[in-house]
Amino acid sequence: MRWRRVYPGRADQVPVARVFAATLFEGTGREEDVALVVAELSTNAVRHSRSGAERGWFGLEVTLADIAYIAVTDLGGGCVPTIQSEAPGCEPQVGGYGLLTVSKLALATGVHGSSDDGFTVWADMDLRRPTQNGPRQPVTLVS
User: Fold this and answer.
1) Is the pLDDT of residue 88 over 60?
2) Which of 42, 64, 37 is nearest to 52 (CA)?
């Protein structure tokens, strides 16, 4: 099943998108992880792109499957979304830990688009495993 929604680009809409996604994933054991991913990606769209400007918006796309797909599309205007390193001397800018957190919860993450046309930041989440405990090799894809 796939759902798509568009939200006004305001901070008060981030919890609305978060609750919507968590409700869709109810019973999977990953509801909180999905909610956190949606909140992080939506917050970034509102804070770091034209989505947060007057009449701005952000889009949410969710696909519920064994490998779930969660994507947030913004209106561009900012820098290319990147995952910051945890290495000393590579401290994130403006908080900067949101995409790092998303990458730790996801099987794979990626970004496509442009500053002019908008970015879509996505995460694939493995619902076959109820939790993401233990070390694993993160995969980050950017196209």
Assistant:
1) no
2) 42
